Amino acid sequence: MAQFPRDETGTLGLAQEIADGLAANTEVYPAxxxxxxxxxxxxxxxxxxxxxxxxxxAALEQAVSTKQLAFDALEDKMKKEIRYAENTxxxxxxxxKLIGWGGRKSATPLEAPGQVxxxxxxxxxxxxxxxxxxxxxxxxKVAAYKVKCxxxxxxxxxxxxxxxxxxxxxxxITLTGQIQGKELEYCVVAVNKAGEGVASNTVTAVL
Length: 207
Fold this sequence. Notes:
The chain is an alpha+beta fold. The protein has helices at 8-24, 36-89, 93-96, and strands at 117-125, 128-134, 144-151, 163-168, 172-175, 183-192, 195-196, 203-206. The strands form two sheets. Strands 3, 4, 6, 7 and 8 form a five-stranded antiparallel beta sheet that branches. InterPro entries: FN3_dom, FN3_sf, Ig-like_fold.
């Protein structure tokens, strides 16, 4: 069974076929409820309206393109004026504000990262340990993480100093070639150009 068209092209095509068929077969369809003249007029109205929409769309696209070119040209001229003003008054904020602009912001000093959080042992084996930790909640942007290790401090002694075991760019690392059979302590410190942050909690393992 035929289905009524769902798109404009199909509707216009079927309307034309109906109008032509009714006009050519008046003996079969002597009294249609809508005359072929009215049907053809309605068809012509639809074609005109469709063409008007297409023309309007083309005009809109052209208008949008013209507007963008105008804004691009304006922004280019504004940037030239701003560069001229900045160089003329040597970025003097007070003078630049006379034209609605402002000088360069003072650079914010970089601070060392905050404390690394929640260092845990993910897995361990002979001479191998996998560590993971959380990013600092405050402080400056982290550039890298120093993973430090030392033999476990025996209570009442000063113990060995922390030594750098490796450097990580992410918040996890697998260390291999570690000393076996001894109790080792690990901690992680976030670093950047401003210095080192506070060390994380310490974890202990015998590998």
